[in-house]
Write a structure and sequence with these properties.
Blueprint: H1 31-43, H2 61-74, E1 78-82, H3 85-95, E2 103-106, H4 113-119, E3 124-127, H5 139-144, E4 150-156, H6 165-175, E5 178-182, E6 190-191, E7 194-195, E8 202-206, E9 219-223, H7 226-236, H8 240-246, H9 263-294, E10 300-301, E11 316-320, H10 322-325, H11 329-338, E12 344-345, H12 355-358, H13 386-395, E13 396-399, H14 408-423, H15 425-428
Parallel strand pairs: 2-3, 2-4, 4-5, 5-8
Antiparallel strand pairs: 1-9, 6-7, 8-9, 10-11, 11-13, 12-13
Bound molecules: pyridoxal-5'-phosphate (PLP).
């Protein structure tokens, strides 16, 4: 191979900085998880739930252990596990009493379930814009979107850091709304002296394979409200069928589903939760190495951490400023990807631009939009959230390398790839 090859940009035919694949996201499953799973199999009772009232209404020993551990970790009174964060999001809205005719303010910059859970309640998701620098719901935009129909704010603690929860809580108090935190991406991040997920009336967690800790699929709601916790438990376990026996008259019409977590999943999640703090520390250490390296490049802005908060770097989100380097984000992204480092651009399309919202057809016959209970008017037009559209189409670059088992060398390679492109950006200007 020509000696020049390693200096030439990989996108132009040179040798990439990195040729090794990244380790699979096996999320540090180890002997502890194996032991718990074997013990569960030996017990043979793979789900401890029953639909009748009584102790088994609350699930098996491991599900209850996981919930107790979550309460200790987050410093909350109640944790209710679910078979996914998507189920938990739906249950949180049902527990909050959201239904036909109601609007819920959501973020357009998230995994789709953060908005479609509202449709699952036959209610209307209303998208507010995000902050241009921290990517979470912008309280000013939330306030502008509050109407007589608004019942809740569902904010997403995106990429690993909390939303502006003080301002959102103030709005919720002022307008008598329920504040729910989708905290699937940010367990363990601090909001002042509190943990993200515990500031709103309910916080939602995910334990799916990709998240900070995982058991394949799983989720939870954390809350300090006994009534909300009870409602969540009912939604998780077929609802009204058992309420009559439980003497909870006022909940006797609670519609429910089967959102129950199995003992096997809880067996994996219990030791995973014990590892969360050390895994978070690893993410933060790697992110700080990456940031030190990236600070040399004025066209790439590392994540900004909110005052008195911590970031747990589920996703490392950077803003790319095209005018500084004079290369489009698309070309920069392709050049970086060609160097073999992990990179993504744009995150997700602003959710309101997806067909389900553009066509307003989550159900047949136009519900919930044309439903007789809905008297509002929601817009999903392009342009309603300029910040998220700008981040999606022009500025955001992401990487997910700040996590175990990656190490300093993986961070240095990313920085080297950026440096190489920066040094030779002129050679990219010929690419369209
Ligand atoms: C992953 C994720 C979800 C969905 O989690 P599941 O457990 O897969 O249902 C919801 N919201 C956000 C912000 C997520 O990142």
């Amino acid at each position: 191979m020509n000696i020049l090859d390693s200096t030439k940009l990989a996108i132009l035919g040179g040798k990439p900085i990195r040729t090794r694949p990244y380790p699979k996201h096996t999320t540090q499953l180890g002997d502890e998880e194996k032991r718990e799973v074997i013990a569960t199999l030996d017990d043979g009772e793979l789900s401890g739930f029953s639909g009748w009232s009584g102790p088994r209404f609350l699930g098996g020993a491991r599900v209850r252990q996981l919930e107790a551990d979550l309460c200790v970790f987050f410093g909350v009174q109640y944790a209710v596990t679910f078979n996914s964060a998507t189920s938990a999001l739906h249950a949180s809205l049902v527990a909050a009493g959201i239904g036909p005719g109601d609007e819920v303010i959501v973020s357009p910059y998230s995994m789709v379930a953060s908005a479609t859970c509202v449709l699952m309640c036959n209610a209307i998701p209303v998208f507010a814009d995000v902050e241009p620098d921290m990517f979470c719901l912008d309280p000013a935009s939330v306030e502008m979107n509050i109407t007589a129909q608004t019942r809740a704010i569902l904010t997403v603690n995106l990429f690993g850091q909390p939303s502006n929860l003080a301002s959102l809580s103030r709005l919720a108090d002022q307008y008598n709304l329920v504040l729910i935190e989708d905290n699937a991406q940010s367990p363990g991040s601090q909001y002042g002296s509190m943990l993200a997920g515990t500031v709103g009336e309910m916080g939602v967690l995910s334990f799916n394979y990709h998240k900070a800790i995982q058991c394949g699929e799983g989720g939870a709601i954390i809350t300090n409200s006994d009534e909300l916790a009870d409602r969540c438990r009912l939604v998780r376990n077929h609802g009204e069928a058992c309420v009559v026996d439980m003497g909870r008259g006022e909940m006797e019409c609670q519609l429910g589903f089967n959102y129950r977590l199995t003992e096997l999943q809880a067996a994996v999640a219990i030791p995973q939760l014990r590892k969360l703090n050390s895994l978070t520390a690893k993410r933060q250490e790697l992110a700080s190495i990456l940031e030190n390296g990236l600070n040399a490049f004025p066209f790439l802005r590392p994540p900004i951490v909110r005052n008195e908060c911590t970031h747990v770097y589920y996703v490392y989100g950077m803003r790319y400023i095209e005018s500084v380097l004079g290369v489009s984000r698309d070309i920069f992204f392709k050049a970086l990807a060609a160097e073999g480092v992990s990179v993504g651009q744009g995150y997700v399309k602003p959710l309101y631009l997806l067909p389900i919202f553009q066509k307003r057809l989550p159900y047949t016959k136009g519900c919930p939009y044309t439903c007789g209970h809905y008297s509002g008017e929601v817009s999903y037009a392009e342009g309603i959230c300029p910040n998220v559209e700008m981040l999606y189409s022009r500025e955001l670059l992401t990487t997910e390398i700040c996590r175990y088992p990656n190490n300093q060398d993986d961070m240095r390679e990313f920085v080297l790839a950026v440096e190489k492109i920066s040094d030779q950006s002129n050679s990219l200007k010929s690419l369209a």
